[in-house]
Amino acid sequence: MNWKEQYKDRITTAADAVGVIKDSDYIVCSHAAANPQVIMRELVAQKERFSNLHIYHMLPLGYGDYLLPENAKHFHHITNFIGGASRESASLGKADFIPCFFKDTPQLIGNIFPVDVAIINVSPPDDQGYCSLGLSCDYTKASVEKAHKVIAQVNEYMPYVGSTNKVHLSRFDSIVPCTDPIPEIPLPSITEVEREIGRNCASLINDGDTLQLGIGAIPDAVLLFLKEKKDLGIHTEMFSDGAIELVKSGVINGRLKTLYPGKLVATFLMGTRALYDFVDKNPAVELLPVDYVNDPAVIGRNDNMVSINSCIEVDLMGQVNAESIGIKQFSGTGGQVDYVRGASVSKGGRSIIAVPATASKGKVSRIVPFLSPGAAVTTSRNDVDYVVTEYGVAKLKGRTLAQRAEALIAIAHPDFRDELKEEYKKRFNK
Predict the structure, then answer these.
(1) Mind telling me the catalytic residues?
(2) 0.85 exceeded by pTM
(3) Domain check: are 242 and 391 in the same one?
(4) 121-147: buried (b, 16+ CB within 10 Å) or exposed (e) per residue?
């Protein structure tokens, strides 16, 4: 049977595809913008069949009703990253959180978290019968490789991304064709605070550097100040629309990259339709599994690697909390530590924690004497290199505790510096 015949033979409805899932099965869904929404809607439509269906999914964009607290009696959500769709259930104890580096998620799949069924959202097949995993390679590829059954939502809107980010349709047990729009994230609004943070971060970036940038106002603000740079590269867990202009203008070209020269390397993507169209069949874009892309040893093979991440709070020792508000899990470790450590082993590498000096409309300092009680230490004080706010740059690596505190107080919001100085005096008898 050739692949076209296989394709026709495996086409089914979402209802019939979901019908093969049994209660107590372990499900893994493709990540972020590759959320298989059509099949997940059908799963919820059939929820009365389930009382203990286990679902692993990091960050679903778009439809996520299976994560609602009222559906916890049907679906047991397990994740290593809390997002908007899962935050309420997690706070109520109706979803479980696994502390885990992003790079280690493929090791969870099929081991700590068995996978009976992988539910994925893929592109139409190419002329050899391969479907691209589209916008989510990360742990999705591992789930396809390890699952007992694979349900594929073959989506006309899913871009074909990368040369190896694909799976042959013969691996699919069920195929559900659809024309479901890919979830998008609107372009962020950049405030003056974020512009100043971007300007300060850009002062640490040189021609020829390779960057890790995420999504949101701060990464996009950094990109605003890189237009005069030359020969920048990208090696990142994900990039978004902000990078497109610099690629088209030639600022980001990867010419001097020491790993995958000329390529924009990532493990997943999310943004607007403009981004999805840009990456579709673009030979300059490679999506690779997260246990490779986020491996610090791999990251470090890029000379002059610069990572830029954000956080919730930083204490005067340089400990970074990027994931919890006290004991309440707000997000997850993600790839922050992967890239901080990768940049540290890169020849000429630097890592930056970029954060506004205040939160809650200026009422709360993000530079604090102590992390909030119960807060997670995402990035240790031993790992942190630079901290950047709108008030400047603090170099921490290689500095004493007293020097770190001095540098952090200097970039805190002026309204909070006096109380931070009082703590400094008590701590260091100065």
Answers:
(1) 237
(2) yes
(3) yes
(4) bbbebeeebbbbbbbbbbbbbbbbbbb
